[in-house]
Amino acid sequence: MDRLLFKFCLLFLVSWNPLSASPLNDPTKPIHFSSGSKETKKVSTEYQLTGIFFKQGKYEAVINNSLYRKGDYVGNNKIVSIDSNSVVITGETGTKKLSLLTPLKKLKKK
After folding, report:
1. Number of separate domains in the chain
2. What is the mean pLDDT of the chain?
3. For position 97, which CATH number holds?
């Protein structure tokens, strides 16, 4: 039995080529992840809302990996409101609502 297991393992190692294997996907990578190429940054003008925090009675939003509060500017757009699940921005092109993919859950104090 040990000999059969050894042969199987040896056959597997010889037949497996790590260079031909497809790269593994990172399960922790954000859905709207860019590799940081200059081309992508020039073309993309979309805003991605990735988080909302409630701190000292006020909401703060994470948009494109930066922290913002109501009244701050994201590019040429002003943040008009932030609630538990969305951010409303307004600018030259009009008003846009950014929403979280997964709604924020409120935690109960113990």
Report:
1. 1
2. 76
3. 2.30.30.830
Would you state the torsion angle of the CA atoms of residues 48, 59, 89, 51, taken in this order, to the nearest 10 degrees?
10
Specify which residues 66 forms β-bridges with: 63
Q: Is 38 helix (H, G, I), strand (E, B) or coil?
A: helix
Cα within 13 Å of Cα(87), Cβ side: 30
Residue 99 lies in a domain: yes
- Give domain status of residue 65, yes or no: yes
Residue 54: pLDDT band (50, 70, 90) is confident
What is the C-alpha to C-alpha distance for residues 4 and 23, in angstroms, rounded to an integer?
31
Side chain identity at 10, as an amino acid letter?
Answer: L
Domain assignment present for 4: no
Two tokens, residue 11: 């056959």
| In the predicted structure, residue 16 carries a pLDDT above the cut 80 | no
Cα torsion angle, 90, 95, 100, 101, sign: negative
What gap in Å lies between CA 94 and CA 48, rounded to an integer?
17
